[in-house]
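User: Sequence recovery, please. Input:
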């Protein structure tokens, strides 16, 4: 058991003062506001719940910053993908472990305490399954365990190169499964996460490009009640190809043909009509937004203002992991809206309301829902995932309550986090994860080999 005391803490009911939090077995046992600190309490100033990065492709952290050299005259997502494939084709299980471990250390240092790993790098370099079909999933699980981050593993089903069941490209060979292979992969992946504290599993049909309708029907039951994540409408070309294939846009197709409900998370959903926005919001499914990656890849701007007006739920993910941080994702989400609407504080919930707080509340609730967490936030029964802010940071000077969240997201960024507990385990202190140095050295050695 451990006892923490916060001068102020963001609870589900709002900000509270003099809050004592009791943690037992990785879970919040008690939250008591208005209590003076007791002898033995570990004391901090400002506490927030940890957030989920609901969408990550861990291996892509290894190529962060390596695709910033202009290719042909129309450098797009599709040229970035070539670099990604080259990288994916070279990585060994040990490389994946090295890259994922550092990534998860960085996520924790930046306020993410759970990750939804949309995992599709399954097979050996020649495309044949490893002796343990879930070899790569085990590496991901071990990286999560070493770092302390809670893992929602989302093994991805990937079978085709484009809409309508087109044959996969050779460069996709490490991702591709038959339905039967995928069922075996799911069973082995379940074992890989079973012993992880806070671990759980869902499934991730990769996209309508990579999965046929029949395959989608066959694999969704393998989620066994867990979350279902799918990429949709990230790119204009993807929308055009989907229209050419089916006469429907990707989000429209999914809403008409798949059992989309609150268990589902549509990743990106960048390109939607007004009708799709309202129909999607009505399902209660979560929009998995990855604003930094969507900006990096030139995807477009999610219609967040309209989606929130329709009472849509969203969470955030770090996706390509080109830059990792809660503040970075939430700031980019709001700034995209400002640039598009030529206004300020577009996503604030109303006059006089903090934009940072609105973004934070949505990302907390949407991230928890998308990764099947029934309790989110600083409340009894939830995972003890807690982040404290460094009140000596200049951008937090004199700030309390929502102003501290705004100071963190819009001004301080990566320097504002002090300590992080994940599942009750204190993994970050003074902004540094205990494994940072070792994880960097292992990562650097792996990536030097890969880029050589
Ligand atoms: Zn993705």
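Assistant: Recovered sequence (452 residues):
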């Amino acid at each position: 058991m451990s006892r923490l005391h916060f001068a102020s803490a963001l609870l589900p009911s709002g900000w509270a003062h003099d809050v004592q939090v009791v943690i037992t077995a990785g879970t919040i046992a008690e939250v008591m506001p208005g209590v003076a600190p007791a002898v033995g309490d570990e004391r901090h100033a400002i506490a927030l719940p940890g957030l989920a990065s609901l969408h990550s492709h861990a291996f892509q952290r290894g190529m962060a910053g390596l695709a910033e050299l202009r290719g042909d005259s129309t450098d797009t997502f599709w040229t970035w993908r070539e670099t990604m494939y080259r990288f994916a084709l070279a990585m060994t299980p040990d490389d994946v472990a090295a890259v994922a471990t550092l990534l998860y250390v960085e996520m924790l240092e930046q306020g993410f305490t759970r990750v939804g790993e949309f995992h599709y790098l399954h097979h050996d370099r020649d495309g044949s399954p490893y002796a343990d079909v879930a070899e790569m999933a085990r590496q991901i699980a071990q990286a999560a365990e070493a770092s302390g981050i809670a893992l929602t593993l989302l093994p991805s089903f990937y079978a085709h190169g484009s809409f309508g069941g087109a044959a996969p490209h050779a460069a996709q060979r490490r991702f591709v499964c038959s339905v039967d292979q995928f069922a075996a992969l799911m069973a082995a992946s379940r074992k890989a996460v079973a012993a992880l504290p806070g671990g759980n599993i869902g499934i991730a049909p990769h996209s309508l490009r990579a999965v046929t309708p029949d395959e989608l029907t066959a694999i969704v039951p393998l989620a066994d009640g867990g979350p279902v994540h799918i990429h949709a409408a990230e790119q204009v070309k993807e929308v055009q190809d989907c229209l050419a294939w089916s006469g429907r846009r990707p989000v429209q197709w999914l809403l008409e043909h798949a059992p989309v409900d609150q268990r589902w998370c549509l990743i990106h959903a960048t390109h939607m009509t007004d009708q799709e926005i309202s129909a999607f919001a009505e399902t209660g499914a979560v929009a998995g937004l990855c604003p930094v990656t969507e900006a990096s890849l030139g995807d477009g701007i999610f219609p967040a203002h309209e989606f929130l007006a329709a009472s849509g739920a969203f969470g955030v993910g770090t996706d390509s992991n080109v830059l990792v941080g809660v503040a970075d994702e939430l700031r980019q989400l709001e700034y995209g809206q400002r640039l598009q609407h030529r206004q300020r504080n577009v996503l604030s919930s109303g006059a006089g309301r903090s934009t940072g707080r609105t973004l934070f509340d949505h990302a907390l609730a949407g991230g928890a829902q998308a990764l099947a967490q029934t309790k989110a936030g600083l409340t009894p029964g939830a995972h003890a995932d807690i982040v404290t802010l460094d009140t000596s940071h200049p951008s937090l000077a004199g700030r309390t309550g929502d102003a501290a969240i705004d100071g963190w997201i819009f001004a301080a960024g990566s320097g504002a986090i002090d300590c992080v507990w994940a599942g009750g385990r204190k993994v970050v202190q003074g902004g540094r994860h205990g494994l940072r140095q070792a994880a960097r050295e292992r990562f650097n050695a792996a990536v030097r080999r890969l880029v050589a």
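Residues 93-109 form the longest helix (17 residues).
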